[in-house]
Amino acid sequence: MEILVILVPLALMLGGAGLVAFLWSLRSGQYDDLDGAAWRAIADDEPPQEAPVKR
Amino acid sequence: MQVTRDFSHYVREAGEGVQHIDLAVEGVHCAGCMAKIERGLSAIPDVTLARVNLTDRRVALEWKAGTLNPGRFIDRLEELGYKAYPFETESAEVAEVAESRFLLRCLGVAAFATMNVMMLSIPVWSGNVSDMLPEQRDFFHWLSALIALPAAAYAGQPFFRSAWRALSAKTTNMDVPISIGVILALGMSVVETFHHAEHAYFDAAIMLLTFLLVGRFLDQNMRRRTRAVAGNLAALKAETAAKFIGPDEISQVPVAAINPGDIVLLRPGERCAVDGTVIEGRSEIDQSLITGETLYVTAEQGTAVYAGSMNISGTLRVRVSAASEATLLAEITRLLDNALQARSRYMRLADRASRLYAPVVHATALLTILGWVIAGAAWHDAIVTGVAVLIITCPCALGLAIPTVQTIASGAMFKSGVLLNSGDAIERLAEADHVIFDKTGTLTLPDLEVMNAADIPAEIFELAGRLALSSHHPVAAAVAQAAGAKSPVVGAVEEAGQGVRATVDGVELRLGRPSFCGAEALIGSTVVDPEASVVAFSRGSDRFVLSVRQGLRPDAKAVIAALKARNIGIEILSGDREPAVKAAAKVLEIPEWRAGVTPSDKIARIEELKQRGAKVLMVGDGMNDAPSLAAAHVSMSPISAAHLSQATADLVFLGRPLAPVVAAIDASRKALHLMRQNLWLAIGYNVLAVPVAISGVVTPLIAAAAMSGSSILVMLNSLRARTSSREIV
Question: TM segments (chain A) (predicted)?
Fold first, then answer.
C-alpha cells in the first residue's frame, strides 16, 4: 500500500490541473459562444472566394 | 441641410489606441455567415478584430482609434447582406452574464470535486466488503473531506445565499432544505470520520450540489439568452432621430443619445422615436400605436407627440420632453402602476412544491430520530439515520424538475418566434383559458396594404407604384410596395399635403388626395371600408381610386379558429372606432367585441373576467394596452409594439403571422404537463427511497445511486419538451 504515497498526490494534482484548466478556459471566454465554437471547428481554413452564397 | 451619422455613443476605448464597438446582426445562423462576415470586415484596413458570436448574434469589432467611422462597418455588412446596428449592453444583461459565469464556475468546481471524491469513495465501498484496513479508510475519508469541504463552501454559495435571504425574510424556499441537507451531511461526515466510522457522505453532498447547479445554470442561461435576444431586437430597430446640432445642421443620432430639451426633425413617413411637443410645422400624424385609433390626427404647434407615432404629411420640429411630462403618458403610467401593484405575486410551481416539501422532509427526519430513540437506539445512531433521511430526500430531482423543462421549452418557443420576458410565463400561459385581443397592430399588421389592387389594371397600378416612390407619405410607400415598383418616375414633383405629379410622354400623372386628382366623384362608389384611407391616381383623364388600410395578419382567421378548437374564449377590446372593429370581428368570426374602449375600461373588463375565475391572456401592442397587459394573468405583444407594452408583456412574438400565439400556448401546456410529471417522478423516487432511509440501511453507495438515477431520469423526461407538437393552424 506504499504506492498510495505516490498515487494519491498524483491523483489530486491531476484533478487540480483539470480544474485550473477549466477555470482558465472559462476566464478566457471559451464558453461565451458555444454555438459558434461548434461551427468553427469544421470551418474551412481557406474558404472559396466570395461565391454567391444563398441565404 | 447636412445629415451625418453619429455612432460615437456606442464606441468605447479598448486599450491603447484601440476602439471597440459591438454590433447586433440579423440573419447570422451558420458557419458560412460567420466566415463571410469575419472575412468581409477584416478586409477593411486598420480593423484589428472582427469576431462573430453566433449564440448572441453579435459582432465585436476593434480598430485603430480614429481611423474609421463605425458607419462603415454597417455599410459593409449591408453589402454582405446583413442588417446590423450598434447596441449598448444594458446593465441588466451585464448582470445576467456575470451571474451565468459565476454559476458555471461553481458548477465546474463542484463537478471536479465530485469526480475526485468519487474516486476516493469507490475504494472505500469496495474495501468495506473486502479487506480494507480501518486506518486506510480513515485516510481516504479525510482526503475526501479535504476536497469536498472547500469545494462545497465555494460551489454552495448560490444556495446558501438564497436560503439565507429567504430565512431573513422569514419565508422558505427550495434552497433552505438544500442548504440544511448539504451542511448536515458534511458536518455529520466529519464527525463520523473522527469516530473512525464505516460511512461518510462527502460524495453524496458534493454530488447533490453538482446536479442542482446544473439546473440552476440552465435556468440562468435561459434568462441570459432571452435578455441578449431582446437587446438585439431593440438595437436592430435602429431607432434614431434627426437631431439639430446647429441652426441648420442635423445629425442622425441614436435615441439613447437624445436628451430632453433637444430639438429633432420629423420628416413625413418617419416614425417618431421620442416623446415631445411640436414647436414648428403642421402635419397629420398616425397615433394608432398609442391609442389604437386608425384615423389620423392633426399636429401643429403645441401638439404633444409620442414615441411610436407616424408622421404622415408635413415636416415637424419637435422639442423632446422627459417622458413624465406628457399628459397621456402620465395617465397610462398611473394605470400601469396600479395594475402592477394589484398583480398578486404568482406562486410558481417550484415555490408551491418547496412550500409543501420542506416541512414534510424535516418532520420526517425529526420523527425518524425520535422513533429510533424510543425504539431504544443510541442517540448517535438515531441522529445518523435522521441525517441520512435528509440526504436521501434532498431535492435533487425536484431542483431539476422545472428548470430543465423551462430551458428546453423556451428554446422550442424561440424557434417558433416567441421570446419569454419572465421565467414563470410558461406556467401562467399554460393556464390561460380566455384571450383578449387588441385590434390595431395585433390582429392587424402595423403596415398599410392596398386592398383593391385586383380591381385596377396591372399596368396602371405599376405606374402608380413608380410615381409613389417619389413620395415619403406612408400611404404612397404602401402603394409603391404593393406594386413592387423599383424605378421612380423621372421628374416627379411632390406637393406637400396634396400628392405627387409627373409628366410622362406628354400625359400628366397624379397620385394623391382625391381632390388633387379630380377624383372626388369616384369616392362614393368605390370605398366601402370604413377603416381605409383613400388615395387617387390619374393618368390624363383616367381616374382610379385605391383604398389603403392596415390588413389583418395573414393567418389571423386560422389562429382564431385554432384557439376556438382549444376551447379558449376570445374577444376583441379595441380603442378604435366601432365600424372598424365590427368589420374585423365579422371577418374573424369573433362574436364578442367592444370598440372605443379606454385603458381603464380594458382593465375593468379583465377584472370582471377574473372575478368569474377566468385566466386571461391579453394580446396587445399599443401604449394604451400596457396597463391591461400588466393586469392580465399573462400577456403577449408583437415585436412591433410600443416600448412600454413590450416591456410589460410576459412574452413577445416576432414576424407577421399571429400563429406564434397558438404555438406558445401549446408549447407552454406541454411544458407544464412535463413539469408536473417531473415533480411526480421526484416524489415517486422519495416514496421509494425514504422508507429505506428511515429503516437505517442506507449506505453512501445507495444514496449516490438513487440520487444520480432520479436526476438523470428527470433530465431525460424534460428533453421531451423539445419535440414540437402537431401542426398548429
Answer: 6-26
